[in-house]
From TrEMBL:
Record-linked Pfam families: RVT_3 (PF13456)
Protein name: RNase H type-1 domain-containing protein
Organism: Medicago truncatula
InterPro entries hit by this protein: RNase_H-like_EbsB-rel (IPR052929), RNaseH_domain (IPR002156), RNaseH_sf (IPR036397)
Domain of life: Eukaryota
Start and end residues of each RNase H type-1 domain: 6-84
Lineage: Eukaryota, Viridiplantae, Streptophyta, Embryophyta, Tracheophyta
């Protein structure tokens, strides 16, 4: 992506929306980070950021909707994975 001034910006955006059990808006957050990694690792960093925010808000019993099947499958499995991807996910199990 090129910035307004022609500089190359390799950044990813994160959008988080929290809704209550009736589907009503509660809170939202956006963030940018500069990934030097593949798309699955970016998705995992986004999940990590979200989990930290949820923890800081002291919310519990939270359901997540993610758009990366690989990340979802990895979170739902309990296989050991020593990659950067696996280490981030394992930190929240």
């Amino acid at each position: 992506m090129k910035g307004r001034h022609g500089k190359n910006r390799q950044r990813a955006g994160l959008g988080i929306c929290i809704r209550n059990d009736a589907g009503e808006f509660v809170r939202s957050k956006t963030d940018w980070f500069a990934p030097l990694c593949d798309v699955d690792l970016r998705e995992t960093v986004g999940l990590h950021t979200t989990l930290q925010w949820i923890s800081d808000l002291q919310f519990d019993n939270v359901d997540f909707a993610l758009d990366s099947k690989r990340v979802v499958d990895h979170v739902n499995s309990y296989e050991d994975d020593n990659s950067d991807f696996g280490c981030i996910i394992s930190a929240y199990r």
